[in-house]
Design a protein that fits this description.
There is one protein chain. By secondary structure, this protein is of the alpha/beta class. The chain has 14 helices and twelve strands. The strands form two sheets. A six-stranded mixed sheet has the order 3-4-5-2-1-6, covered by helices on one side. Strands 8-9-7-10-11-12 form a six-stranded mixed sheet, sandwiched between helices. Helix 4 runs antiparallel to helix 5 and helix 6 runs antiparallel to helix 13.
Length: about 450
């Protein structure tokens, strides 16, 4: 993504009426355009001036405050002007239109933060933390996003990246002396430094995963045998008929995602195809996707028919073995007398009825408890993180382990390649190595004006 030198303009405050609304300009012509809009008043850097905003005929659009920030001492590193008017959407749109008539271009989503990144004011993780701070739903998330914006995450990534760079230099130098045993070229200290880097990366990955849960909420996958009531449970939790429910086994063929809030708990629920041995080609593909989704789950809601809890139970236990948290649910409990005795091996299962709502309050409480524990753990970490950060850290960790195996076998070329790939993966987090399409994807998710 090339950095052009157009002057851009956008409304920087949220939609809707308010006491104050801000129009932001950034680029080489910002001051000149603002001077014309401000009825010829000269703007001095970092001095708030009360001005009259005028149209092309000199008629007053509004009055307010103008602030000028001279490059490079601004958010974007360019000349920036903020026009603070009354918060009428109509007034703000008139100001934007006037700035565009004077040569400014409407900003793309996230373009101000993109320019800050390209000017070196923020790295990529910090730029994403700006959007996370804006979207923070509670105090814990806001504090964690603020830490990421302050560079806590980036500093830890950069420290590990610097260590990997030093290891790469050592290994590349050793390649030039391939006839010598590695141990005579400092192989012992090299391996120990690599082990230390792996330990640091593992700790950072654990913190990033907690931060990802704080930002995104919990990812809960609903699994079970066909006709256990998975889709009915999704509808009951969502409070609407989001999934098709029939008595025909295999009705659900693909994944259905629904983001909900239960008593302040944010959950991404995923309804999946029933897991069983048989099924046509389409159903088998749905089951494959269900198993893939379980690999990304924080919680597995394992739904069994309370009338036949043994159906598919062994296969389900194997399928959800790698999920951090598993909740076993005995659905359709309204069709059985309440004996107070759970089935063998399911002492901690919850009896629920998606049809009548029985037991859902206890499920809500269990989910809330899990969320509070996860959010508390995440809040104790230093930062929020995104799924792409976690993915990059996992890839880097895998490469470092591959490098350790290569060093153990005295395969310096393979070790050098693995260290390079791990270093590159870390660079994707902060933008030290960032393909243009990655930048475009990230900044396009920002709000316009930020």
């Amino acid at each position: 993504m090339s950095h052009d030198h157009d002057t851009i303009v956008a409304i920087a405050t949220a939609p809707g009426a308010g006491g104050v609304g801000i129009v932001r300009l950034s680029g080489p012509r910002s001051r000149d355009i603002a001077r014309t809009v401000c009825d010829g008043r000269v703007l001095r850097p970092r001095v708030a001036r009360h001005v009259r905003f005028v149209d092309a005929d000199g008629a007053t659009i509004d009055d307010g405050i103008a602030l000028y920030f001279r490059a490079p001492a601004s958010y974007t590193g360019e000349d920036v002007v903020e026009l603070q008017a009354h918060g009428s959407r109509a007034v703000l749109q008139q100001l934007v239109a006037r700035c565009q008539a004077l040569g400014a271009r409407g900003a793309r989503p996230g373009e101000f933060s993109e320019r800050a990144f390209l000017a070196g004011k923020l790295d990529l993780a910090q730029a994403e933390a700006v959007a996370d701070l804006i979207a923070a739903g509670d105090e814990r998330a806001a504090r964690a996003a603020r830490r990421a914006l302050d560079g806590e995450f980036s500093r830890r990534v950069d420290a590990i990246a610097a260590e990997l760079l030093a290891l790469r230099v050592h290994v590349e130098a050793a390649i030039d002396f391939a006839d010598e045993p590695l141990d005579t070229l400092g192989g012992g200290p090299l391996r120990r430094r690599l082990d230390d880097a792996i330990a640091l990366l593992d700790a950072l990955l654990a913190d990033a995963e907690r931060g990802r849960k704080l930002r995104d909420g919990l990812h809960a996958v609903i699994v079970g045998p066909p006709n256990a009531g998975k889709s009915s449970l999704l509808n009951a939790l969502a409070g609407s008929d989001r999934a098709i429910v029939t008595d025909i086994a295999g009705t659900t063929r693909d994944l259905l995602h629904e983001t909900i809030r239960i008593d302040g708990v944010e959950l991404t629920l995923v309804d999946t195809a029933g897991l069983r041995e048989s099924g046509d080609v389409i159903e088998r593909e749905g089951m494959r996707r269900a198993r893939d989704e379980l690999g990304r789950a924080d919680i597995a809601l394992v739904v069994l028919d309370a009338r036949a809890p043994e159906a598919g139970r062994a296969e389900l236990a194997e399928a959800v073995a790698g999920v951090p948290t598993r909740l076993w649910l005995l659905n359709k409990s309204d069709l059985l007398p309440d004996t107070g005795v759970p089935p063998a091996g399911l002492d901690d299962a919850l009896s629920v009825s998606a049809r009548t709502g029985a037991g859902l309050d206890r499920l809500h409480e269990r989910l809330r408890t899990l969320w509070q524990g996860s959010a508390t753990d995440a809040a104790e970490g230093a930062f929020t993180a995104r799924a792409r950060h976690v993915d990059a850290l996992r890839r880097a960790a895998g490469e470092l382990r591959a490098a350790r195996q290569a060093l153990a076998a005295d395969s310096l070329d393979l070790a050098a390649e693995a260290l390079r790939a791990g270093h590159d993966a870390l660079g994707e987090i902060t933008g030290r190595i960032a393909p243009d399409d990655l930048l475009g994807h990230i900044f396009s998710s920002f709000c316009i004006g930020k």
